[in-house]
């Protein structure tokens, strides 16, 4: 064939099709979307011959034609990579989470199908020199995708409603066993291994985001999983109690055991062998929390609070209680490993060889090879903790940093996103900072494509969770660039910028930088935005900035009291407490009387009393302090009024004493004229 397929894009298309073929043959989709996932992987697999012809035909075209084909195939490569991400989500994601997120997951399916269909529609076959037979097969896939785009293939409604009813505790108690039986079968949660894997996947997905308050989300889903697990063990006594326990009846047969919730690890839901306490005060099985931390997480799985350190303290009291409970119930106490098993994080030799080859391509003088290698490293680093560790250990970070100044915006985008994915692992954060990465990341934040700027902001957010790095990042000009992105970026870019700014402004020295960069008027605009977009982020930032003298002055100049009073009365729980915190700061200082008087005019007392009764713990404290401050102000106002009235009364001339009747003479000497006479 004389023609040639696009270089890097053709390779990306071929790689994605090969991965989809593996998904179709070896991946298990044991969830509510099995039919949709298999259909998607099958359609991509049908593009195999097309990908092969593209790969075989690479090269041989003029430079201008090669660039044109690259542009033509890039949308298809992007769409296929999106499809692969969705397939991986279906393979690795929590089954319960995926059902509860039905609407979002179906939007992802529709988005992927629409993007694939559009990409295939725009393929210039005449310029790719594809055989007629392969073209017909691609057109067949295109027709299938067009039909799929026109109709939504929704999962089982009964399935969704069953999960939702248990999640919200809105089911008929008499129907609970039937619901649990259906869910156990449809979710393929029938063995201890299934249930343990689901628990780990559930925590992983909730920690990665999901729209709702993660603390409440994971607690409810963990309880739902526990119900299913208890049901499965009750219905299948031969499964026995959790691993490491043995409970026999009088005939020597295994019998089910009801383990107290406080003895179960919140991650695995198993009886704990070696309970340890983390920085937030929560207790976990050592092996499970070590695996969680090794995956790059820095939050507590149960509470989603940031852990100030990763120290694991043995919970000797709980371990003793578990041993006593086991003895009382005739169970063999779980044996603790002398050396706790840590998850194996080393790459295989073939994986390491692949990473080394990609790093060689990063050093290539060929821009296409650099771009392709950066894109592949980006995907590998996104996939799992093992890859993040191996890629960093192989020396990728300095090489990726050198590409942040690339004139090729796509290469730059891949490089900064790869660094973002690497930074998820705690140890890699230190390597990135020590490599002097921040100025280069800020360069991308200022000058890159919109997606690159978004991911640069997200990288700064990821790095800024370490307190000492807040100082480093704040001193490199990152804050003004983040303020600009918050002002003019895409919705995702604004969200990433807001998250990074919030983290950075926790450090007092960065607050002044943010205020001088014009952050306060921008935040006040978001707070008063009728759409409510980024309201939570804006209120959190406003609360932090109000503790700074310059911030308080800037906020006070923006006439904030009416919107703060309204927020205290009708905002979300977190926004109400932040509004009260801002108001409390304003009510101390030079302009306090102005703000207190304005708050009184806006009727702040009623919502404050309600917040003091029904708010969050922090909200209640702020409301009580504000009520005390308002009460003192009102007493002061009353005293001033009374003092003014008294002063006014003293200024009025004395009224003569009342004339007695006996003092009036019977006859006046001369009548008093009614009007004065004119001389």
From TrEMBL:
Its EC number is 2.3.2.27. It is an enzyme of class 2 (transferase). ARM repeats lie at residues 395-437. One of its GO terms (cellular component) is cytosol. Transmembrane segments: none annotated. Residues 258-332 form the U-box domain. PROSITE patterns: ARM_REPEAT (PS50176), U_BOX (PS51698). It catalyses: S-ubiquitinyl-[E2 ubiquitin-conjugating enzyme]-L-cysteine + [acceptor protein]-L-lysine = [E2 ubiquitin-conjugating enzyme]-L-cysteine + N(6)-ubiquitinyl-[acceptor protein]-L-lysine. Pathway: Protein modification; protein ubiquitination. It comes from the Eukaryota. This is RING-type E3 ubiquitin transferase.
């Amino acid at each position: 064939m004389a023609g040639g397929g696009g270089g890097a894009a053709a390779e990306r298309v071929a790689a994605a099709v090969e991965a989809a073929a593996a998904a179709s043959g070896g991946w298990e989709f044991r969830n509510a979307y099995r039919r949709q996932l298999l259909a998607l992987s099958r359609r991509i697999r049908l593009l195999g011959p097309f990908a092969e012809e593209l790969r075989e035909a690479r090269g041989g075209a003029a430079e201008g034609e090669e660039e044109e084909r690259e542009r033509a195939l890039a949308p298809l490569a992007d769409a296929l990579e999106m499809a692969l991400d969705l397939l991986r989500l279906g393979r690795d994601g929590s089954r319960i989470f995926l059902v509860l997120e039905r609407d979002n997951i179906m939007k992802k399916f529709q988005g992927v199908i629409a993007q694939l269909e559009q990409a295939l529609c725009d393929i210039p076959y005449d310029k790719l020199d594809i055989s007629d037979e392969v073209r017909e097969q691609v057109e067949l896939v295109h027709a299938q995708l067009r039909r799929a785009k026109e109709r939504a293939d929704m999962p089982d409604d009964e399935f969704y409603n069953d999960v939702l009813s248990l999640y919200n505790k809105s089911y008929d108690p008499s129907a609970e066993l039937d619901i649990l039986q259906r869910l156990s079968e449809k979710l393929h949660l029938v063995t201890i291994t299934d249930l343990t894997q689901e628990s780990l996947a559930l925590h992983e997905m909730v920690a990665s985001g999901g729209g709702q308050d993660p603390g409440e989300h994971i607690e409810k889903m963990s309880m739902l999983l526990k119900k299913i697990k208890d049901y499965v063990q009750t219905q299948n006594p031969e499964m026995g109690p959790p691993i490491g326990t043995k409970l026999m009846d009088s005939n020597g047969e295994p019998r089910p055991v009801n383990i107290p919730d406080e003895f179960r690890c919140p991650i695995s839901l198993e009886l704990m062998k070696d309970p340890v306490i983390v920085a937030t005060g929560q207790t976990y099985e050592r092996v499970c929390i070590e695996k969680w931390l090794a995956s790059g997480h820095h939050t507590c799985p149960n509470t989603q609070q940031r852990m100030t350190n990763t120290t694991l303290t043995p919970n000797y009291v709980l371990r003793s209680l578990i041993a006593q409970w086991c003895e009382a119930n005739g169970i063999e106490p779980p044996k603790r490993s002398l050396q706790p098993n840590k998850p194996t994080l080393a790459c295989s030799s073939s994986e390491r060889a692949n990473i080394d080859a990609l790093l060689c391509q990063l050093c290539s003088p060929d821009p296409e090879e650099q771009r392709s290698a950066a894109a592949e490293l980006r995907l590998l680093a996104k996939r799992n903790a093992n890859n993040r560790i191996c890629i960093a250990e192989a020396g990728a970070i300095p090489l990726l940093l050198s590409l942040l100044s690339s004139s090729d915006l796509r290469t730059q985008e891949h490089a900064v996103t790869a660094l973002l994915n690497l930074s998820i692992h705690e140890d890699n954060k230190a390597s990135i900072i020590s490599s002097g990465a921040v100025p280069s990341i800020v360069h991308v934040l200022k000058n890159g494509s919109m997606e690159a700027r978004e991911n640069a902001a997200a990288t700064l957010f990821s790095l800024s969770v370490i307190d000492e790095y807040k100082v480093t990042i704040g001193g490199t000009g990152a804050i003004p660039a983040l303020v600009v992105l918050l002002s003019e970026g895409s919705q995702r870019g604004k969200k990433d910028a807001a998250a990074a700014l919030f983290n950075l402004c926790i450090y007092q020295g960065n607050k002044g930088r943010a205020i001088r960069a014009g952050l306060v008027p921008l935040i006040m605009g978001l707070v008063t935005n009728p759409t409510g977009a980024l309201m939570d982020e804006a209120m959190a930032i406003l609360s932090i900035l109000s503790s700074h003298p310059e911030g308080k002055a800037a906020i006070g100049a923006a006439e904030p009291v009416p919107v703060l009073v309204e927020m205290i009365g009708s905002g979300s729980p977190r926004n109400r407490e932040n509004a009260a915190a801002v108001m409390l700061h304003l009510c101390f200082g030079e302009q306090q009387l102005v703000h207190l008087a304005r708050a009184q005019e806006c009727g702040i007392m009623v919502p404050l009393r309600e917040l003091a009764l029904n708010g969050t713990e922090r909200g209640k404290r702020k409301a009580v302090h504000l009520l005390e401050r308002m009460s003192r102000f009102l007493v002061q106002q009353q005293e001033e009024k009374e003092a003014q009235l008294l002063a006014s009364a003293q200024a009025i001339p004395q009224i003569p004493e009342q004339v007695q009747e006996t003092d009036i003479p019977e006859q006046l000497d001369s009548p008093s004229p009614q009007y004065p006479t004119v001389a």
